[in-house]
Design a protein that fits this description.
Helix content: 40-55%
Number of helices: 15
Structural class: alpha+beta
Strand content: 5-15%
Number of strands: 10
Shape: elongated
Strand order of the largest sheet: 1-2-3
Radius of gyration: 28 Å
Distance between the termini: 79 Å
Length: about 400
């Protein structure tokens, strides 16, 4: 920001959103007046010439009336947006978009990093500090809100892009989880942990160990998404026709928004047959035990099963196990058996990382052969189901 006198007139020059603005201040009679007028010119630029002043330029109102409405209609992860927006509105809600600066965004980051989470009170205070990954997701959402506001002509700049590098370095895009499972721990979990009160989780855990689905994908899996018939089934999803061959399932809603077909090996198929033979099973393959509704969480039962098996539960323990660890162990077992990265990527539902990956695909038969490898291991358990309870016996 500069003002200088050239001849008899004062001139100004400044940058906003990487664009240079300059001009003459003919009414300024001193440097002080020139600076005041320059501030007013900057304010006009930030506000924009046809800025929408219908009230949507208030942060909380825009989030409620525009962004969250869009999120619910178009995003699978809209529930995450809801609780994160609630927190953002608590911090920025009373402000208008042109009042939120990069330094306020930096202060928001530092404040969030300095708070403790309410969960996991049993662990040490240092382990309860809010994760930089969590704050990174919140700041990314804040940036998305500003981008939409700019598109709707209620904001002119995105202050998140101006956050100082020293503050940005405090945030991590993701934590690399450790896989704390092995063949022996898996056997202990199945045989000693998922029994008695925890036996209800045995089918979903076994199914996940042989399909690698995310917990949300497992919970949303419906009986209509399974094809055990001799002929292929076809699904219409977002305008695309997708073939699901025999002994396969379709993951209709995935994290990246793209459906995928996952074959069932003999163990995963036996789990599905067992579930479908249960007269209490309605719409969902793995329903809530309280009613024929979608399963919401497995944390308490899974933690109890880990404790019963002598395993540590929780992401804060160095050797802790969570339900998501099953997905990591699924991928590790496939890699150990020589399954190539493309097949594992397509089974897990990950996005291609470059254009070459985008041109490389696996077939359903390649995925089927890969998953059958999980059933042929001397240390593995062959799972058998009767009409009421799942039992495991040592493989011959």
């Amino acid at each position: 920001m500069t003002v200088r006198k050239r001849g008899e007139s004062w001139h100004y020059q400044f940058m906003v959103a990487n664009q240079l603005y300059y001009g003459v201040l003919p009414t300024a009679n001193s440097k002080t007046e020139a600076k005041d007028l320059e501030v007013e010119e900057r304010r006009k630029v930030r506000q924009g010439p046809g800025l929408n002043t219908s009230g949507l330029d208030q942060f909380s109102r825009f989030v409620t009336d525009v962004y969250l409405k869009y999120s619910r209609e178009n995003k699978v992860s809209w529930l995450h947006d809801e609780f994160r927006c609630e927190m953002l509105c608590e911090y920025f809600g009373s402000k208008r978009f042109n009042e939120i600066t990069p330094m306020q965004c930096a202060s928001f980051i530092n404040q969030r990093l300095g708070t403790m989470v309410k969960r996991h009170r049993q662990v040490a205070p240092a382990s309860r500090m809010r994760s930089p990954v969590t704050v990174h997701k919140e700041v990314s959402l804040l940036s998305s809100i500003f981008k939409m506001a700019i598109g709707e002509n209620v904001a002119t700049v995105n202050p998140v892009s101006g956050i100082p590098p020293a503050v940005r370095k405090k945030l991590k895009a993701r934590n690399k989880r450790r896989c704390n499972l092995d063949a022996q721990k898996e056997a202990r979990l199945i045989e000693n942990g998922l029994v008695g009160r925890n036996a209800r989780l045995r089918p979903i855990v076994l199914f996940d160990l042989h399909t690698g689905l995310r917990l949300g994908e497992l919970c949303r899996l419906e009986r209509d998404h399974v094809n055990l018939e001799q002929q292929a089934k076809w699904f219409e999803i977002s305008g695309d026709s997708i073939e699901v061959p025999t002994d396969c399932i379709i993951v209709a809603q995935s994290k990246n928004g793209k459906p995928r077909v996952v074959p069932l090996n003999s163990i995963a198929k036996s789990v599905v047959v067992h579930q479908l033979s249960d007269v209490t099973i309605g719409k969902y393959i793995f329903p809530s035990p309280k009613a024929d509704k979608m399963l919401k969480e497995v944390k308490k039962g899974f933690a109890s099963g880990c404790t019963a098996a002598g395993l540590k539960y929780g992401q804060y323990a160095r050797d802790g196990i969570t339900f998501h660890t099953l997905r990591h162990w699924f991928n590790s077992k496939l890699e150990e058996r020589g399954v190539n990265k493309t097949v594992r990527r397509d089974l897990l539902g990950h996005q291609p990382k470059d254009i070459t990956d985008d041109y490389t695909h696996s077939t359903v038969e390649q995925r089927r052969k890969a998953l059958e490898l999980l059933c042929h291991n001397d240390e593995a358990n062959v799972v058998q189901f009767d009409s009421s309870v799942a039992t495991s016996v040592a493989a011959a």
